[in-house]
Known about the structure:
It is a single chain. It is built from twelve helices and 14 strands. The model has no long low-confidence stretch (mean pLDDT 96). It has helices at residues 11-23, 30-42, 54-64, 82-89, 108-112, 134-140, 193-202, 211-217, 236-267, 301-310, 337-345, 357-371, and strands at 47-51, 72-76, 93-97, 119-125, 145-149, 157-158, 161-162, 169-173, 186-190, 274-275, 282-283, 289-292, 316-317, 346-349. The two termini are 25 Å apart. By secondary structure, it is α/β, with parallel strands linked by helices. Helix 1 runs antiparallel to helix 9 and helix 2 runs parallel beside helix 9 (236-267). The chain folds into two domains: 11-247, Aspartate Aminotransferase, domain 2; 249-371, Aspartate Aminotransferase, domain 1, CATH 3.90.1150.10.
Amino acid sequence: xxxxxxxxxxxxxxxxxxxxxxxxxxxxxxxxxxxxxxxxxxxxxxxxxxxxxxxxxxxxxxxxxxxxxxxxxxxxxxxxxxxxxxxxxxxxxxxxxxxxxxxxxxxxxxxxxxxxxxxxxxxxxxxxxxxxxxxxxxxxxxxxxxxxxxxxxxxxxxxxxxxxxxxxxxxxxxxxxxxxxxxxxxxxxxxxxxxxxxxxxxxxxxxxxxxxxxxxxxxxxxxxxxxxxxxxxxxxxxxxxxxxxxxxxxxxxxxxxxxxxxxxxxxxxxxxxxxxxxxxxxxxxxxxxxxxxxxxxxxxxxxxxxxxxxxxxxxxxxxxxxxxxxxxxxxxxxxxxxxxxxxxxxxxxxxxxxxxxxxxxxxxxxxxxxxxxx
Length: 374
């Protein structure tokens, strides 16, 4: 069975983890600090603060921005449910906005449609690695906090710079479905030194001095807990893997973009089939290769997934619509026609660094066979 995604690991990751284990320090420590610096440099950010997941990165970003009870935060429904959940974790209310069906991203226009006097922030998702038009949203809404959900976007570009460059707050994921993976983990990148220092305290229970610093500097005075914090730490084991993956990212993106180009060439003549592609303002890392089916496709999306599975090809439904999940039942939502159409009619095809052309040909032939079903 050809998987949708397979992480690219090698002996270098194994050696890096073994080195950390041998050091005796496996919790948040020197490797985490090194990973923070390396990742921040990659995305042209001033500071990086490593955390336990992108979900905790988003939640901590809301806390840093002062978003809490009484506030509304505009989010896309077309996103993994964590994007909406973190708003509730912060005590605020998520408000779902529709998306541009070509990119899967929020736009200034779709945000305008759901603005209210209580709106304080927008979580702007670079969905599946496709860069959102950040400048357009910032220009249209200069008074709102813009938090970039860049979970899928490491290596994507926006106006010839890395996605996340210059972001007020950006959150990243190192989950195994992402190009750059540490097994799990996340990162906040930001430009403000004081906010970065506070984020480092908050991720470690609000401690005035981190455990790693106390150990490294021989500090014997007791730490203080300056505010109520969280246990959102990354381990040096994860960071060691992440550091190796940083060196692989350029090659991964080159390979994925080559495979995506080949998909476009081989599937481009299927009538009405639409495939994820670069927007005018940037380039995608093709974290997911999604396709949207035409309304007259011979079989429905779910039937197509079963059809592909019978032919040895794994596929996944397109990006979920959070407002349709039971957790958000009963919310008063704006009309979200583009979101509902795209989530119902799209699916994700296999794409990973070690994918062979023979495997890709198998996917293509299965898709073509589905298109010929009478």
